[in-house]
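User: Sequence in, structure out. Go.
Assistant: Echoing your sequence, followed by the structure tokens.
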Amino acid sequence: MVIEAVPATTPVVTRGRFRLSAFWLPATYSYVGLLIAVAIALTMVSAKSATRIVLHASTNLHNLADGRFGTLFSSAFVVSEGAATVFIIVPLLACLLAVAERRFGTVRLLHTFLVGHVATTVLVAIGLWVAVESQLVPNSITTVEDVGVSYGAMAVVGALVAALPPHRRFVWTASWLTLALGGVLVWHTFTNVGHFLALCLGLGIGRLMIRRQVAPLHPLNWLEYLLLAVGSVFACLMLLG
């Protein structure tokens, strides 16, 4: 019997491939790249044109009533605070998305983000419509800018409960619910209500993943904890900003 020797370099190559695949995050890279591209594009037009573009992409009641349901998706690619703000918050958002994509995979990250963004936007729109019809809020609110990444991001924050060890899940859930509810009670805006709703949706998705045991069982490593910490800064800025 002839036993062939295994080349000494084989384990090194295997580990190298593993590391490279662990950093292959297509959803995170693509989304962050599009956000930056749109932000740069808005700086290349006049302020009036930029405002018009943002309003056209907004999921306000005026656009939805006109049947512009494409804004449910386009609004997630526009950050109206300006290019300077984008280059501050986008890296923080990237860390949040990266840890979720590493733990759940690309498809589940996209599913969670889209459910959080679209479902929350629809729920907020229904609530605003009822408030306008009841004359609880002025009619001018139907044409305000309503774009951004925060609803989808907050759903991801909630879903990340599935990535944590069981003994830390209650603290994670209670802390974010307290912050989100505090934002509603302090600022009383429909955006704060949306953040709370998106977080609840994300927590529901996270609990479903736990029940179905689709989240990885191995614990977070030091890099994922670092990404989670930086991503949490982004979520805090969204809730308290």
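User: And one key feature?
Assistant: Confidence is low (pLDDT under 50) at residues 1-18.
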